[in-house]
Amino acid sequence: MIDEECYLGRCSAAYRKIMKKGIGSADPLLVFSILRLAKVAMNAEDPSAEWSEIYTRCQAQIETVPRQAPGETAGLDWPIHPGAAWMAARGNEAYVKPFLEAAEKLVENGHRNGDGLFDDPKYPGHLSTEIAAMTIPALAWAGVCGKDERFFDEAIRQFEGYMAALYDPAARLWHPGYLPGRASAEMWPVRDKTPQSQALYLKHTGRFPGCWGRGEGYALFALSELVFELPDGHPKKAELLKIREDMLAGVLPYQDPEGMWHQVLDDWGSYAESSGSAWILYAVERGLKRGTIDRARFSVPCQRGLAGLARYLTWDGGIFNVSQGCVCPGGRGTTADYALLGWERNLPQGLAPAILALQLAFQLELHALIPSFSKTAELFPGDEK
Question: Nearest Cα to 121, choosing from 162, 76, 65, 188?
Fold first, then answer.
């Protein structure tokens, strides 16, 4: 029986909440997080038969190419289900052939901008870090599954191109998107869509000036999966590991004393936001587990972040302070537009990274790399100055 007051117990509570409320059951990243949670729980010291059933149930509902799995990028569906890609890369034969076919189709026919980066076919030239998260991990898993360097090369090309377009080396943060033209009303899903409000706010945006927490999380997820899957002998691996560590070092100054990162990363006046915080923690934990980042430097921020995130989790598996999804708030994507974009409870965009971060924290605890859930809460009670 899993102790509720542990990392895995909190994941279990979140899963029960999802099943009870039917929260985002078709969301690709949420299903992916549950699939991986079930795999971790099945390997726990005292596994429950329930997790084997959950794992089987997740597999049954995953299609390699989701029919309707829209992301936050307006009107754009995930081209490959991350759960299917991950299972294929881990040797599940039922998914290998259809997944590799889908990956080939993505490389050959995926819509690209003039620089060869995957973009939004409804708004050609529109880039977002979510598109990077949709495509780069899938290509990395295809490289593992098909033992084909072409997929790794394409994943690296995409990441490097996206970084050139959206990363701000001065702030050491990512901007969430780029739009070569004016945001449409569909891309800007505001409550008040009067002609007056649109004329006031919509404009030619270029690179979105705000630094949105979840947008940073999508970029970190893309790179974390890529460097995890790249073979150790790959000529680009050391360089990409250094980029990942530099990116993580870049977000450390924006972690608040309570352990959280905010809706707008470089604006502490914006609210503490749980989904972006969880994605950052997941990326840190990936590095800590493999020893590919400086453990002495990142262990304490990781623990403080886990304690901070726990304060936004409810006893029954809910989560507070999840940013509303909007690819281009205000039609401009400025710092103020993102700061004014409110938060909600129990959105799948927050539950997915929280489940991923907590299950990885459980694995770090097993390897004696971080303390237990309760001990971490004692060490970082949230009143540090």
Answer: 76
